Amino acid sequence: MKKQSVDIEKLLKSMTVEEKAAQMMVLPYSHMTKERAYLWIERGIGAFLHVWGEEARALRAAAAKTKCGIPLIIGIDAVHGHCLNDCATVFPTQLSMACSFNPALIKQMARMTAKEVSADNINWTFSPVLCLGRDLRWGRVAETFGEDKYLAGELGRAMIEGYQGDALSDKGSILACAKHYIGYGEATGGRDSYDTEITERKMRAELLPPFEKAVKAGCKTFMTAYGSLDGVPCTADKRLLRDILKNELMFDGFVVTDWNNIGHLIGEQHIAKDFREASRIAVESGNDMMMATERFYERVVDLFKSGELSESLLDDAVRRILSAKAALGLFEDPCKAEDRAYIGCKEHMELCRTLARECVVLLKNENRILPLSEQVKRIAVIGACAEDILAHYGDWTFFTHPSENKRAVPKRPCVTFLDGMRTLASRYGKELTYQRGCEILSEDKAALDAAQRAAEQSDVVFFVCGDTIERTGEAKDIALPELTKPQKALFCALKQTGKPIVTVFISSKPLCLQEEAKGSAAFLTCFNGGMFGGEALAEAVFGEFSPCGKLPISFARAVGEQPTYYNTLSGWHCKDYADLSEKKSFVFGEGLSYTEFAYSDAVFDSETLTLKVKLKNAGTRQGKEITEVYFEDLISSVMTPVKQLIAFAKTELAAGEEKELIFAFDKKDFSLVNTKCERVTEKGEFRIMVGGSSKNEDLISLPFSIEE
Ligand code: BGC
User: Could you tell me the pTM of the whole model?
Assistant: First the structure.
């Protein structure tokens, strides 16, 4: 460990209450004048957000020269690459990268993102999102790792390790931020920022585990969610922030509120009458840094001077912030930054390509229509998503933040699906025609007719569909998570041609599209795959590689089937809805390959809690398989999910090759949260399941028991 050059206790003692209050603030540079920003620098502000490049460097240099001289941190939403900068590498979104089930690659992508961010004089990213995506109405599903707590925890850990590096003091390391703590994705009705109706027991059982892993991974910052749990706003929840996060989990970093959460305690959540009261509640509850609430400063100084806020509370918050700055090595070098050449460099774009390929999920492939055979001569690519950069990029890029600018032009390559198909069609000697067919949000009769004609003259039709930025993102929840009407009409028109349809789904999240899934010969997706997502999908179509992604999230059959996730508790009154009995199109953990994988010889040793299974590539080409391990606690003091993921592994095998996979567990892996809110492993009967998806028919199931 590098020796810290600063004595934090001494520094704390030397600070005025005004300086302490200022340290506890992060303000959006993008929302204020330069003069005001420098006034805050003089006051000793702790952090700014959404500023980069030379402006960020100048702010940091100026902070170091003020009277208290405390270095500044600067935060940004680099959530799938440093994408607010138009020169940066745009990686697949979190939901997309989760399809790879590949923590090693995700760690590398986070490391590269950290370097790009740091090269732009920023040292803090508001990432990863560890909320679960279980309600498709919610606008921010794309920012999650999907519906499963274990997967989210493992991938979140990898991301944190990548951002923060071996040591935060290393060049190119930045602070990670686990957000949004907690329950943000589970809000009633899928409504962003609304209340989450959940008990503490269930919160601990289902939502806390990824955040616990973040603490264990050394994540230095946590962000509170906008919403509330059982009527208590997360920002005002002392139990959540102090008792659970800081005392029980021993989180030693600092907690930042989300955007003006203090203000929301007054105007929206109505638990405080004014900024003075809201500021007091926020500090007492355990928030250390307040985002985008300028009025906090004077109120907190006043509260302190009138004796309503104790100095020890302020000191605890400031100590945590200063420790993070010390860990970053900022007291030695307040302007520490990576080399600018890293931003959008070749090496990063190459990894982005590799990751995008691992994110492609093939969900249906009737009669092995893919990869395209020699017999296919004429291809029709239909659908506006095929050439829509935003559909490929997803949210949180320079197109959408800090302010919406759809006319922006990326300074790095972006290969859309259409670009990728054109390149490969010409390489493979196939004729390709393209028609938009409709706009995503509006019909166009002439375009529809032209698309139908193009389809009639082709051997295979690629129906490229999805959502648009108008229907996804923060405060953009939708009541109808399905394809827009024009896209549905387009699909029907294409279907009438009788030509085989391959659906390519470029979307922020799953939508209810049973009809389209049933009516397609093949279906593939990578959600928002980033700058090379389109290229990767096209390469998969032509068989340049065999798809190996699996779904981190289930597709619902109908809009009313929300929330949707595989690991439910069981009920018994009718196996299904009275008006919905067909099988789900695509569920968690599912994904096909161009080769075949077979599992055999599974054995579980209850003494050592070790699972062994043989995996064979029984097909004719090389491929990678994601093996999933689930368990079920058969008799327990509280009900537990029908199955829960507890391990996964990705294995590359040549045609005909076989390998034995070994998974070792600990008793804790089979635990539950009991009615006293304690995590315990109860003795008794269990079963462990291993295979290629969460579907029973794809799993080998073995009984075992755990003794006292
Ligand atoms: C979002 C956060 C984000 C913050 C800063 C908020 O509106 O909810 O996820 O980190 O803004 O941009």
Answer: 0.97
